[in-house]
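quick one before i forget lol
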Amino acid sequence: MKDTDSAKRKGEIENIKHQRTAVPSLSGKPGDANVIKVSDISYSREEAINDLRSLGESFPERRITRDFYRHHANIPETAWTALFGTFAEFVRAAGMELSRYENKIRLRTAQHASNDHLREVNEERKSYGNLYQRDKKNRFKTMIACSDLHDVECDPFYLRVLTETIKTIDPNIVCIDGDLFDLAEFGKYSNDPREWDTVGRIKAGLGIISDIREAAPDAQIDLIEGNHEARLVKHLVENSGALTALLSDLHEFDLRKLLGLDKYEVNYIANADICTFTDAQLKKEMVKNYKVYWNTILAHHFPHGKQMALPGFNGHHHQHAVQTFHNTKMGSYEWHQMGGGHVREASYCDGSKWNNGFLIVNVDTFTESVVFDYVSVGSTFSVAGGTWFYRNEDEYYPALTKELQFRSRGQW
């Protein structure tokens, strides 16, 4: 008896599981999606659309909302909901709002229109790469390369070692390999707007260029656009376009003056297309910002450059690393990721893991061979070209002092 009852209940459950909710009979015919019957009254898709349009014509100055239509409609909500699903789709079907495709086209048009002025600046800045060529014709060349100085965040000891080394070596070229400026105001990390000092940061960056020019009055100075410089340009044009235009009209102020290119005779290397709509697109474009020197060495802000079959260097990561490669043209060669000039502390990451340094690059242009001399700028001292440098008391900063105390006492 128990087995019989169990089988009966099982059969009932299976019947329930296999039941299907019938599609509403929209005109007495199953599957008809153009007519719905509510309380024995049939409402067609066309009738609903005409009713909505008629209401719109009666109130031409008013946007017809779902609540407004609910109180003035001749079609019950259950009917138009069954026919269209949502009120937004109902309005689109009536042609009273743009379709999804039309709306997408208009948004894309607006995006491209907003980039019109940015395109002008984009193309203009690409011409700044050869403003001041000073490279001499001698066979043996010397370059000093540095990266990620980050304006007011630059370690003063690092800057002193860098500029004194430049004076001593007298290089053909000084390459600032991106992120001379920090400008956290335009970065991806959140910062308290009350702490912004855009003008002060730009002045600090220009002060660094001034120090380098003073140390190397006859050298060619190249600034390769890093991600921070690119964000600055995009922000000025996209978010401060009116102000930028006003300054340009009244004071002949432009990007060249902002970056001090003419004042300090600096070439600005910018090949990336910054007319992008997303950060991901801009990141892909930024890998185009690089320069090849003497057909021998490649300078790139990002590590992508090491895939380009030439010896060279990059910045961006604030950590020194060396890799060796080989090909039939160059033989065995090195790729250096340089440390930065930024103090080894930051609010958005553990800066203690960074290290500071710059490169002295020696090139034989006849044999197209390269010898690197990496200068590490340590916590208390540095050695560059046989010259010892020691950090002065006023060149220490809190995070470094704390680190040194830990080393000496074994505790934080």
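fyi Confidence is low (pLDDT under 50) at residues 8-30.
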